[in-house]
Amino acid sequence: MKKWYKTIKELYGPLLIVEGVENAKFEDLVEVETQDGEIRKGRVLEARDDRAVVQMFDTTSGIDIKNSKASFLGKTLKLGVSELMLGRVFNGFGDVMDGGEEIIPEKELDINGFPLNPYMREFPEDFIQTGVSTIDVMNTLVQGQKLPIFSVAGLPHSKLAAQIVRQSKVIKEGKVDSNFAIVFGAIGITFEESQFFINEFKKTGALFKTVMFINLANDPVIERITLPRLALTTAEYLAYEKNMNVLVVLTDITNYCNSLREVSAARKEVPGRRSYPGYMYTDLASLYERAGKVDGSTGSITQLPILTMPEGDKTHPIPDLTGYITEGQIVLAPELEKKGINPPVAVLASLSRLMNKGIGEGKTREDHSGVANQLFAGYAKGRELRELAQILGESSLSEDDRKFVQFVDAFEKEFVNQGYENDRSIEESLNLGWKLLAMLPEKELKRVKKEHIEKYMNK
């Protein structure tokens, strides 16, 4: 029988303060009955002595604290999981929102999972093909890696996210691995964006291999905090119990962090950098570190979180802390997007720290490392020479220097600029790389092996 407490003392935004509570625990579910008999749900955010801070899932408007009461259920929020979730769309509380039948769960899991034990981790070393040349060749995504995309408000990162979900695949022994799934989490997006993602995945058939969780900008704040945990709990079930290779795409982590800040302000906590809570690093790590490969399981979880850098500032707490926890970053550049280059990936600013473990013979191709290094070196040198030519004029450049400048333009227009509908295999991307390297003087090709030049140049 439920025990009700009529001791709600204070109300601050989404938070209720209840006193005289017995045995309340962190993350326990709470039911609040309003003066009208309406039941609203929440969770314990803090429990100390006989006092509990309750964060409401629903709005707190209309609650009369003198005539309302709270009941502590003694259990945490759980998600019913099943393979039948593939192809379905859920909200930030795990409820079906696509109009279809409810899922009959195979089991229920606590959404507050734990980061993987480092002792049980296997090193990521298997290639995931996204079909995007700047990622596959230059900043390779590896199974079990966490590789964020740093964007800026106004850039088409939603289109890139949809492209990656549509095109991503694991290729083993020349065949596409059917045991591959996507968990897509949209945090605080607009209704138009949600319809774009749903329609795009349905139209291309990507929805059949995808579990979607969607939280709209006008949904409760707590949904934005809960949604990534629902997505990762689903991914853990598919990966470690169904032995699937799962790619988790989360957009936009900035909205998640802003929700943490809003709740922190309501709790009147001492703010950290730029008014974000001091525990935000730990909180983000509790999400990112749920990616990886586990010893004894053939499944894996790879994370591709997307965040918008406020004002394009890399030193902002959200990208800064994310960079410390994750293994590289894909950076989108406004100046490339203005030139009509899409996706506008800034190759020189991007990095995949685990790339070398996931490429090479038997995984991608034997020449992959050399091609990536040579393209990077040629692009970096060509950018410097192009800037020099703008100051001193092209007449100041030698013939070889002009070839590097021409290479930069061709690299951006042909390699980087592939659009959002073009799915390139790793072989196509590498062959395109060789085509562009043929523009450079052969004496400058110091990062590729001679036997690879003979084998692949002008192929």
Description:
There is one protein chain. With 459 residues, the protein is α/β, with parallel strands linked by helices. The chain has helices at residues 133-136, 157-167, 191-204, 221-240, 253-266, 280-288, 317-325, 334-338, 368-392, 399-416, 426-437, 450-456, and strands spanning 4-5, 8-12, 15-19, 28-33, 39-48, 51-56, 69-76, 78-81, 89-91, 107-110, 121-122, 127-128, 141-142, 149-151, 171-172, 175-176, 180-189, 210-216, 245-251, 292-294, 300-308, 328-331, 351-352. The chain has 3 domains: 4-76, Beta Barrel (Elongation Factor Tu (Ef-tu), domain 3), CATH 2.40.30.20; 79-357, Rossmann fold (3-Layer(aba) Sandwich); 368-456, no CATH class. 32% of the residues lie in helices and 24% in strands. A hairpin with a 2-residue loop joins strand 5 and strand 6. The radius of gyration is 25 Å and the shape is elongated. It starts with a strand and ends with a helix.
Features:
10-stranded mixed β-sheet; Elongation Factor Tu (Ef-tu), domain 3; 459 residues; 12 helices; 23 strands; Rossmann fold
